[in-house]
Structures are given as C-alpha cells and as structure tokens.
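The pair is quoted verbatim underneath.

:::
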Amino acid sequence: MSSIRSVIIPAAGWGTRLLPASQSVPKELLPIYDRPAIEWVVEEALASGIERVIFISARGKSSILDHFDRHPLLESILQRSGHEAWAQRIADRNRSADFIEIRQGEALGLGHAVLCGEPCIQEEYFAVMLPDDLYLGEPPALGELIALHEEKGGCVLGLHTVERQQSRQYGMVAGEQISAHQWRLEDMVEKPQPEESPSCQAITGRYLVHRSLFDILRSQNRGALGEIQLTDGLRRLAQEGLFHGLVPRAARFDSGSALGLLIASLAQGLKSKDAAALRHAIEELTSS
C-alpha cells in the first residue's frame, strides 16, 4: 500500500490556451485519444496508490466530477444494448477512489487552489498533480515520486529538462545532481532569464509535499497579480527541509495547448488497436 493516499488536482482554470474548444467544455474533459485528459491523470494517480482525489474546481466545471460519478440511466441503456463492459467501466471508475470537489471561489493563484484542498487532507504528506502536465507510459510518474519519498523521506518535485533559453517559461530549480534523474533541491526561481537560471531543470506538474505547506501558503505575501504563488511556498519548504527532484521516465505532454493535446492523442493512438490505421492516415496526410 502506498504511503501517499490523497492528491489535490487544481482544475479551476479557464483554459484560455485551448479556446475556443474550452469555451463551454472544461479543458480537462477534452479528449486524449479515447478518453478525457483528466481521466489519464486520475489513472496515473490510481496506479500510484492514491485513494482520495480532490478536484479544485470553479463555477461551470462540475462536469469534471460528473465524469467520475455513477450514471444509472446510461449504465442501464448500455446493459440493455449489450454493452455490459462499458456499463461496468463506469461503475468501476466511480468505485476506484473517493472523488471530492471543492470550489475555488476566487481565482487567487495556484497556491490558493492547493490551499483550498486542506480540509480534505488527513495525512502528513500528500500529492498535487497539475492536469496540463500529462504523463503517459510506465512507470506512473507520481508513483516514482512516491517511491523516492518512501526510500529517502522528505518532499519530492517532478522535474523535466529544458533548454536554457526556455527557462523564462518555467520555475527552475537549484541543487545538487545525484544521478541522471535525481536531484537534491536547495532553491527554486520562478521564470528566470536564461543567464540567471540555476540549472536546466524545470518544475513540472507533479508534487509530493508535507502538509506544513498549507501554513506557509496561508501566511506568505501575495505575489504578482495579488495571487498566492505555489512556487514561493515550495521555495520556503525546500529551504526548511529535505527536498528531492526527480525526472520521471514516462513521456510528458502539455495537454493545456492544442498542439500538445493533438500530439498526446497521436502518441496514445499509436499504442492502440487503431495504430495501423492511424499510421496509414498519417502517411496519406503527409504525402498529399
């Protein structure tokens, strides 16, 4: 059994990078091949031993929680029409974890979104997963963070390597490189200029943190746009205790952009029963 049982998934954003597709459908429900993007994220969490999934949502986004709820009418229709396996999948998905929705009443930043989940966290350590960072493949990315925590203790951040010129797009970390995929973190900087970046390791949307982060977020000064910045809180946490960084082995995709969504869909399609037909279609499209 995993020592980490709860995950907070902030999903209250407007999804402006995916407009107009996200205008009336939450971006988290846009498809990656044959299922919504958020389902791939939750499947990673479940494969990592998570038992409680806490969605931080907003007005108009309750359909995310609806997706993981039972649907008696649809299940009945599927059963009567000979699609018992699909009906069972809906029921099994609902029973796979405890799914909770908390509304973020005001858009006060990612740190505030995480803070909204505090009432549902009962353990000393918990996970945070940002759905725009999609990991597909084995082993599950969050599971690797949990394994490192169980081996060495402390908090763990997911990292990915970027070109130094891209540092102004990410939170970047400073610390000691332990191996090709592992770091001992000392500090982090939000979107530095390339010449000021302490490394080429960027923070990605997987976090395993101690609940003391809540107290830090609650008391810290607000940053740009009057928002509670998660990176500021993580920085203080890293300065106060043991903090690791890990580059997961699974493939990472940016499902918060139209191109990233398409690339992730193609990647999954090429692993599916439709792979041959998809390759044929790609060959036809690229040769015309």
About this structure: The two ends are 52 Å apart (CA to CA). The chain has one domain: 6-287. The CA atoms of residues 53 and 99 lie 5 Å apart. The chain has a mean pLDDT of 93.
